[in-house]
What does this fold into?
Amino acid sequence: MKRVAVLILLLLLLVPLGRAETLRDLIDDPVAYDGRQVKFRGEVIGVMVRGEHAWVNVFDNGLAIGVWCQAEEAGLISFVGDYTHRGDIVEVVGIYHMACTEHGGDTDIHALSLQVLEKGYQIERPLNMTLLLLSVAISMAAVILSYYLWHIRKEMKKRVPWPFY
Amino acid sequence: MVLTPLTKQDLKIIGFNLSKICYVTGFVLFLPIIVAVSYSELDTIPYFLIGSALSFILGSILYHFLYTQEEMELKHALVMAALAWLLAPLLASVPLWLSNSMASLLDAIFEGISGFTGTGLTLVPDIDHMSRSVNFLRHFLQFMGDGIGIIVISLSILGKTEMSSVLAFKGEAKEVGIRPSIVRTSRIIIGIGVMFLAVGTVLFTVAGMQEGLSPGQAFFDGLNHAMTGYATGGFTVHSQSLLFYHSLWIEVAAIVTMIIGALNFNLHYAVLSGRRSEILRNMEVRILMFVMLMFGFLVSANLMTVKLYPSVEALFRKGFFQVISAQTTTGFQTVSPVHLMLVWPVFSIVVMSAAMLLGGSANSTCGGIKMLRLGVLLKSLLNEIRRSLLPRTAVVGGSFHHVEETPLTDKIIRGAAVISMGYLLLFSFGTMITVLHGYGLEDSMFETASALGNVGLSSGITSPAMPSLLKVAYMFLMWAGKLEVIAVFVLIGFILLALRRGIK
It folds into this structure.
């Protein structure tokens, strides 16, 4: 019992479970976090199912990392972030690998748990009418000008040269 | 030698030929509208319409007011090429800037230059949330600008004289010689490009679907990566570059497209015409493969020594892959920029910088000094050694096999030496200016070699937050690297001549 208590205490000292790292921390100081348990949050920007597992790419403040998790956990993700979608916000607890032995040296996180905190949603991208009208006007100007200049050039080519005496 | 003063006719010839570049750019900027409609991104259509229309307006004005039937001379072709590689990115920056994908107009111009020159350094703050149509445009710029060449396209379609085309090819650092007819040559170059684009798209799409991407995403990503892989450009649709996929098969597809892009167009044509033995006999291919393998082993051995990667597979996918990406001047990454700088040993970084500076084949989509020049310089060095060992009366000649047997003349050696020296001068300039901004020496060498060699691998220096002066310096390096230095000096000479002696 005493041994178990010491082991738990040691684990608590070594693993900062309570604090959530940012992806910037993990990427900027890979050696310090290599092989350690980490916890971070981010937006899902990609899901690729590979058999019983899946790669979930998680984005946080301009950076992204691949999370290797169970396919079942990835199946809970509803939205993948892109131009027209805000991806689900997930919290990942897992082991960070600077150069993963299992995945050809990739930098990744092997998830112990992946939890969807916030469901994503569709982003409306309305057409900017002012810009649309401006673009149509410029396009029409381009067509008219091109045709007009082309026509003038054609007429100039037709013109008979002035006779020299 | 007395330089003749510039005339208004000189400016007319240059301006008139630039009008064709504007037309081609207008077409390039119009095409992403198809992608915007396909993916229901209708809000992005005005950006492309405005960019395209402005290009056509400028083209029409230049065409009409500077119309001339006079032939280009070499000086016109070089200055026209130098200006074309500034004008086209400037026009391409319009939709990039309007789309709010870039932090500033300067960043949009940087992205335009990086795209057209096939470099691949990016200042996009959030690629993962970028619209598909704007993202497609970035990749399409690389394919049209570097993969095929805007001047090749403009002159093969809109050019009317053989002489103009031959000279303009020189300006774009593409030599001629596949076929006697220049129009036929440019069509062959376009044909080769489109064929390898199709092959690359199939490879990437199949690999992507195999690795769990939906068919739609696999095709979109595959098409874009095939464009930038063949163009040895290096833009990718995700901020993690190819690390996004965690896939050996996608990396293999990338290696195939990068190596195809790094080979000489003349070699492609020779092989496609049935002369398969040319691959083994060609001096440039031999040197490229030798240097790539040597650098690959050196980097892998170095990474193994420091025990960074745990297996042979990892050493191949990280060490060898990054060397191939650097040597072919592509810039696909399977290692994050921060890792390259913080975790990789300095020796590997220096070897990678050398690979980027040397580049791939001449007359290909690659940047850098080029293997043909390296081969010529090495052969001439051997000749010099031989000459000093033989009696004074002995004649030391030599030749090399590059599609055909070519004698090693002083003119060829001088050309190779001058361009190599130009690259080294600009490399020193770029490194110094980066160091002056407070970055470390090896980081500075790496990033400068990447910009100058039109590679796109980054040590993390290139970002929207980098100093504006450094952005301008890298824009200059990318532009000068694409033009193989000489056209830049000719443009400077042209401007100085105009300032000193006026325009008659």
User: Anything to note?
Assistant: The radius of gyration of chain A is 29 Å. The helical segments of chain A are 2-14, 23-28, 30-33, 71-74, 129-158.
